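In this supplementary section we document a worked example of the pipeline. Step one takes a protein sequence of length 731 as its only input; no multiple sequence alignment statistics are reported here. Step two produces a three-dimensional model, which step three serialises into structure tokens for compact storage. The input and output of this example are shown verbatim.
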Amino acid sequence: MVYLKKVCPISMIFSNIFKKLFSVVFFLWISILGNSSNTVVYHDSLLKIIESEQSPDTLLFEAYFRLSWELKSSLPQQALDYANEALKLAEKLNRKSKIADALSHIGVIYWQMGNFNMALTYHLEANGIYAKIQDQIGIARSNTNLGIIFSSQSYYDRALDYYFKALKLYEEHNNPGGMAVVLNNIGMVYDYQRDYELAERYHLQSLEIKENLNDEKSIAFSYNNLGLVYQGLGKIEQAKEFFTKALNIRLELNDKREIASTYGNLGNLFYSLNDFTQSEQYLLNALELFYEVDDRSGIAKTYSSLGQLYKQWDDLNNATKYFHQSMDIAKEIGLNRMVTENYLNLSGVMQRIGDYKSAYQYQQEYIVMRDSIYSEESRRKIYELQFMYDHEQKESELQLLRKNEEISLLSTQRDKLLRNFLIVGVIMVLISLFLLYNRFLILRNSNNLLEKQKFEISESNAQLVELNHSLMEQKKMYEELNHKLNISNQKLKESESNLKEINATKDKFFSIISHDLRNPFASIVSFSRILKRDIINMSKEELSELALELDKSVLKIDNLLENLLQWSRTQTGKIKYKPEYIALHEIIKENLNLVHNNARDKNIKLVDSVDDDLAVWADRNMTDSVIRNLLSNALKYTEQGGEIVLSSYVKEHKAFISVKDDGVGIPEESKRKIFQSDSLHSTYGTMDEKGSGLGLLLCKEFVEKQGGEIFFESELGNGSVFTFSLPCEQF
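The serialised model returned by step three reads:
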């Protein structure tokens, strides 16, 4: 306003005092409105501060910052604009703490929008400023945000590193709110890794703190995450209860982004219950809200879930469309894990359509993308280290300038002190030389006497050394002789053991060749004679039936010979252990396809409940042989119309895979013979299938060779469950 230009200095002083008083009142008013339910009035009040020409910069910063924070979940782009304005004001005020707060908040918005690279850049810059000004709570908050970014991109080790650093700082400064957030995020990491027991423990600790603080929004996060944990544990009713609690709170708070997240979780829960109609409704509701808040990460995940749903409905066109849409967004924002899953899902869809060329191409893209995740992690680590190095370099340069100034101020005093020290030093050196000369004369006389005594002692020592050397030679000779005898005894024991094993192997080979191979070969001979004698008079139906029986006999011989070959190679050490990271569901799908026809012949239902994301550090061929033999046994001993279920879980960094059947079970007297090579045991299947007993022995040797274990539970008449474990990572 024009008249303000002519105000006198005293008036200006009063004006500044008035502005500061005005700011304090406004802050109190904003706090009261922000804690009330009247959100519209609160937003309008902040907008009035921004539009007012009388508002000081400190008050404008708070208004932009608070308004951005309130809008980040509903209008993220507008929130980002307000946050950038707050950053400009903080830089204008040259307030380091507020600059760091604004940078950190911008990083949160970019993370919610799915732009992880930008989020990482802003959080690292904020972290550097917090470290420089020694704001421990700011560092803890920044470490928490960095952990969230790395967790979103499946770099769980790095995420946990940042989370535990943040937790330590919050505990040292007795900040329960920060501790609750970090404990919640640690629980989410263990949930992603399928370690549900640890996840539950951290989420319950977080929930206890939040309930003491009466923080409804944070309590909703814990309810939602506990729902995910109980869903992973198979406690469906508890999962549904916690999801519902979280949804009720978020609906009351009108937190659209988190409402969408809970809708998505409920959609996935009903999908697991085969209630596909309810699942579709929740997923579509989630998708609509994610679009409203521009959460591309949530959109990508929801598209993927819808693709899975329509794939289950055999609506392969819609499934393909949603997988492609999820893929496009995931590639754009850097959701590497989601890209990998979509390649795998599209490969499965193309295979069902019959487009094997595309299925193969997507499978190859999946393998390449899976392998590239590790190199991407290295690039991000280098980027982070480079950023921190640049920041520390600048800080070192500033410290060096300050040191130079201090050195220049002290240089004059140093010269004076040096001159005085030199004078005193010369005097001390002269005194020391005199004392040293006297000491030298005394020592020279003493040394002459010591040299004479030393010569006499050395002669005595030489005689003792010669005697000791002689004794040592004799001792060494006895020790070598004793060592050779021990080696000979050990070799004799090993030879005896090897001979027993070779003899047992020979007996088993002869037993299998004489008995187990004889029956199918006898069937083949019998069928060939019938063909030779009656082929002209036989009808097509009889020929077809005879060919089917002949094929079964040949398959029995082929399976038996394959197990014999594998077993003999393990005994002679010709099978080499070549571990790598493999996706278990690929091997399981291949083996399910192999036994599909046999299962159809016996009207047996095959159920695959193994986690599609489960990866292990194992030898592909050995693992394939284990799964094939366990599936074959399950089919053999399951009655017509039965069911075989494959499932998995992770515990203590190991993946456990189970093959469960509802077949005839194993008698008590046969259980102790299952994995013994000296008493191989087999029984007839439900359709008189006969085995050699080698399959389970192969399974045991292959699993243990890979650092796992195999065990079983069985009840006569109620089926069996065979379970084996493999490491999830290189050891």
